[in-house]
Write a structure and sequence with these properties.
The structure is a single chain. The protein is α/β, with parallel strands linked by helices. The chain folds into 2 domains: 6-21 and 272-386, Aspartate Aminotransferase, domain 1 (Alpha-Beta Complex); 31-269, Type I PLP-dependent aspartate aminotransferase-like (Major domain) (Aspartate Aminotransferase, domain 2), CATH 3.40.640. 42% of the residues lie in helices and 16% in strands. The protein has 15 helices and 12 strands. The chain has a 7-stranded mixed β-sheet, with helices on both faces. Strand 3 (107-111), helix 6 and strand 4 form a beta-alpha-beta unit. Helix 2 (33-42) runs antiparallel to helix 11 (254-269). The chain is globular and about 65 Å long.
């Protein structure tokens, strides 16, 4: 592990082991050294921000094969600018009035399964969310009926565990919306890697796609990318800093733009197969270190939708006699060092699970995680095994 920087020692801030993904609350990801150097270089000269936004956006658009692109102050700011662009467009009068959208097309249709904390960003721009469907099912006619002369856009979330089989897929949403002349705005903030996602959603026909620059890309944490239609990106630009518009509050500095561009170039050039192997190896080490605990099903999982990176996953089966996953999660977070893991019932058929995302693990972290997990899982395992066997036998008899 790297030594704690002097500034953190001075402030009394402790290092954490971030095994829950790229969560902003825990620092996102580690900035690439090359990006930091680019930021340092950019800080030594003043430039025109309109010019920098334009050329940086053009460079990103070329890398992504998009019509246009813009660097935002994080993916959430990208959602605000998506909504502003679709509601106010490039009309100076409307741009100045936001978030007052009286008399404008301001409705943003969204499937209930895609409601999440950050869709507040659409409302920041004056959007009114129109919810369709049930928690796990949406019918095509529901989207058709929801689109009216008040509709500004259809929002689509692409994120782990938000796409149950019964909801409308992105391709179908795009087809329905485009037949009615309505743009589709996509939030794919946390879906990198795989690198193919940088172009996939645009190829499918999405009109504006928002990505985080500070997660898998490992650029500055306070950056993001909006890519898509040229006219909508122009509207994004007019609604964004340095203009005196709604997006002025989400200012992106010249240093951050330089850092993101550098990080994106490196990210796209990396060997993804080698990266995934490294993650699988780390996860396998963690799984192997705890595979002997009875009642836990320890596996390495990866899939294109919910675990786009390999994860070490521990399912608490009915035979488990120790603490709950939530209790273990809390104990790890409160311990020394603080260890943050994913916890919840997502898949596998069990009521509880713990998952380890390896993207932010540093060399040696896996051994610390195994030791701390074993400590917390076994320290509270005080249930008498023979008593548990009797409970299971009574349960089996009742089932008969």
């Amino acid at each position: 592990m790297d030594a704690l920087p002097a500034i953190y020692r001075k402030l009394g801030v402790r290092r954490i082991i971030h095994a829950s993904g790229t969560t902003t609350r825990y620092g996102g990801t580690l900035l690439r050294p090359e990006a930091l150097e680019a930021m340092s270089e950019a800080s030594r000269v003043l430039v025109n921000m309109d010019e920098l936004n334009e050329v940086a956006g053009a460079a990103i658009a070329r890398m992504l094969g998009a019509e246009a692109a813009f660097v935002t102050a994080g993916a959430s700011a990208g959602l605000i600018l998506q909504a502003a662009a679709c509601i106010a467009g490039d009309d100076p009068g409307k741009i100045t009035r936001l978030p007052d959208t009286r008399g404008m097309k301001n409705e943003i249709v969204i499937q209930r399964a895609h409601r999440f904390a950050y869709d507040q960003a659409y409302r920041v721009a004056g959007g009114t969310l129109v919810e369709i469907g049930l928690a796990r099912r949406t019918q095509p006619f529901e989207l058709e009926d929801a689109i009216t002369d008040r509709t500004a856009a259809v929002a689509y979330l692409i994120s782990p565990f938000t796409s149950p089989p019964g909801i409308l897929p992105l391709e179908q949403v795009i087809a329905i919306a485009h037949r009615r002349g309505v743009p589709v705005i996509v939030d794919a903030a946390s879906m990198l890697p795989p690198r193919d996602n940088l172009t996939k959603f645009l190829r499918l026909g999405a009109d504006l796609v928002s990505f985080s620059g500070g997660k898998g890309i490992r650029g500055p944490q306070s950056t993001g990318i909006l890519a898509g239609r040229r006219d909508l990106v122009r509207a994004v630009t007019l609604n964004a800093s340095p203009n005196q518009a709604l997006g002025r509050a989400a200012k992106t500095s010249k240093e951050e733009i330089a850092g993101l561009l550098t990080a994106l170039e490196i990210f796209m050039a990396e060997d993804e197969a080698a990266e995934m192997k490294r993650y699988r190896d780390v996860c396998a080490t963690i799984v192997d270190g705890l595979a002997d605990l009875p009642g836990l099903r320890a596996v390495v999982e990866q899939d294109p939708v919910n675990r786009v990176l390999p994860h070490a996953v521990f399912y608490f089966t009915p035979e488990w006699i120790g603490p709950s996953g939530h209790a273990v999660q809390v104990a790890l977070a409160q311990g020394e060092p603080h260890i943050y893991v994913q916890q919840g019932a997502h898949q596998g058929g069990y009521a509880d699970e713990i998952a380890i995302d390896p993207i932010n693990l540093q060399p040696g972290d896996e051994q610390v995680i195994v030791a701390r997990l074993r400590e917390e899982l076994r320290a509270r395992d005080t249930t008498d095994r023979s008593a548990l066997d009797r409970v299971h036998e009574l349960t089996r008899r009742a089932d008969r």
